[in-house]
Amino acid sequence: MIKVMIVEDDPMVAELNRRYLEQVEGFTLVASARSVDEALSQLGQHHIDLILLDIFMPGMNGLELLARIRETGRAVDVILVTAACDSHSINEALRSGAVDYLIKPFEFERLHAALSRYRERAVLIKEQPVLTQSELDQCILCKTRSAEENLPKGLDRNTLNKVWENIRQIGNNSFTTEELANFVGISRVSMRKYLGFLKQIGVVSLDVTYGAVGRPVYKYRCVSLDSDFIKRYL
Fold this sequence. Notes:
The protein has 234 residues and is an alpha/beta fold. It has two domains: 140 residues, Response regulator (Rossmann fold, 3-Layer(aba) Sandwich); 77 residues, Arc Repressor Mutant, subunit A, CATH 1.10.10. The strands form two sheets. The protein has a five-stranded parallel β-sheet with strand order 2-1-3-4-5, sandwiched between helices. Strands 6-7 form a two-stranded antiparallel sheet. Helix 8 packs across helix 9 and helix 9 crosses helix 10. It is globular. The model has no long low-confidence stretch (mean pLDDT 86).
């Protein structure tokens, strides 16, 4: 079993992450922490393989904890689960060796995919001390998976490409499902599926605002117009 620690100062979010974790085979929660100091203490008491780590916490933040882990040479992997969507935080996390980065709020499917990829990698490395280039590309670096295999059922690569082209034209401005559906020329129902997928993989973010009559308005915004991650699906 892969031993996990959740580092999250919000009890409700920590509980939600725990419930998500329970639904993925091969993982067990061995510790929880609400601050960096508490996390460091738990690391001294338990063998931990993977940390689900928030950035925004009182005192030292999650990026500082990740840096400390790397400085001490601990054999611990980290998946960021955070509301921090700025390029600096993402870049710092990746430079410090984070194996994945999830932006809140996220769908369970996105966390499931991150944990599943991590489990596959861990099993492969444990069972095979020597890897071929093909195994490395396919199972760890994800270089050879086709775009069609990666797309959820019901999504089309050509349509996704049109959606992405229109999002790039909109630039840093926010947009609604209906607006983008009109630009692309598909139904709002279909567009919700594409935007849900793009949100799941961290390409767009979703903001909810309330008008004068209290009705929520859902607006999307592109996280990074220069994202290379989307290219593997196009």
